[in-house]
DUF1801 domain-containing protein
Amino acid sequence: MENQGRTIKEVDQFIFNLPDDIQELTNALREIILNASPDLVEEYKWSMPNYSNNGLVCYLQTAKKHVNLGFQKGNELENKDTHNLLQGTGKTMRHVRIKKMEDIQPEALTSLIQTAISLNK
């Protein structure tokens, strides 16, 4: 894992306790998030992994059949979401729902994460 020293025990434990298929998705998304920027800080709050840099950037929310990569300022990302991955109709939050490994589009997700980081500058 190339992001050694950037991951925290609480998130390791959280992922370890997930069902295998969801664990695989969560680990893959965690890697993409941490690889998107060396400045992102991993935290465990609200019972899920959160990533911040000058404020909240994104989070991983797990369910029985999917994992959501969520963005606190998702509404501000919608015009940059060229792959139409974002879902949700809340005031500000949006998420990308991942149900299987094939759903993961690393370049598109990295771009969204990096744009989300720039919103906090």
Q: What stands out?
A: Strands lie at 41-45, 48-52, 56-62, 67-71, 94-98. The CA atoms of residues 72 and 112 lie 12 Å apart. The first strand starts at residue 41 and ends at 45.
